[in-house]
Amino acid sequence: MKINGYTRTCGLMGNPVEHTMSPAIHNTLAEALGENLIYVPFHVPEGHVGEAVSGAYALNLLGCNVTVPYKAQVIPFLREIDPLAEQIGAVNTLVRTEGGFKGYNTDMPGLYRAMCEDGVKIEGEKVLILGAGGVARAVAMLLIHKGAERIVILNRTLEKAEQIALEVNSCADRPAVTALALADYGKLPKDKYLAIQATSLGMFPNVEDVVIEDPSFYCYIHTGYDLVFNPAETRFMELVKKSGGKAFGGLKMLLYQGIIAYELWTGARVDRELAGKAYAEMKQAMGL
């Protein structure tokens, strides 16, 4: 593309951002759709989130993504927040409006689109969530809204899992979420579950890390979904497959959260063919 005085800029705020695959998504979309737009990463030092948001607005940025560790920290500096993002308690997309940015969460809609693309059903499912951080809370909210029958949050610190269960159940019309200490997974009802790995364990370069190593745990899982996208196949996924289950990684979630953000910024609609092209560019950027 040709950069000129009409080129609009979008970007990614985070720390670190050097490993990001997001430019491969957005710059591919912009080129294919003929948009005069570029996307670049912005490394925001700790303690400077507010300045970054006001600076992005002053510099006329069309929008930004927000990644760790700023998805919650960014909220006080926004003019408005979408109800879903407010309920989840995390913002990963800023959209320029009159007088400031509006915050959205495209991570969970992105995860849902990725799961639909992979043929993974939520409605009526019994689900295990590994971890009890902000991502696990957001996943639990998504699952409740999409009709999961029962959700069990497994975490090393039981109190954190119990707090998320309490918060999610208070937003739902039924007490569908329970908590269990990680070490007590043997107490799970003998059933088959959809399991979502919502921690950062197993992420490059610590590719051998996994929340639970014991092969017997994976006999509970008919489908495993790891939100880690690098490596493309995690240790968690390997263990699920060894026990006869299906396993998926987080790369398509990353793709679709980016696509939804791009659609919010530009008003464009990204079809399946173009999504596939952006996905291929991401894989190439990762050396896959």
Task: Please explain how this structure is put together.
There is one protein chain. The radius of gyration is 19 Å and the shape is globular. The longest helix is centred in the last third of the chain and has 16 residues, at 251-266. Helix 1 packs across helix 8 and helix 4 crosses helix 8 (251-266). It has helices at 22-33, 49-58, 83-88, 107-117, 134-145, 158-171, 235-242, 251-266, 272-285; strands at residues 8-14, 37-43, 63-66, 80-81, 93-97, 100-104, 126-130, 150-155, 177-181, 193-197, 221-226, 246-248. It has 9 helices and 12 strands. The protein is an alpha/beta fold and 288 residues long. The strands form 2 sheets. It has a 6-stranded mixed β-sheet, sandwiched between helices. A 6-stranded parallel β-sheet has the order 9-8-7-10-11-12, sandwiched between helices. A hairpin with a 2-residue loop joins strand 5 (93-97) and strand 6.
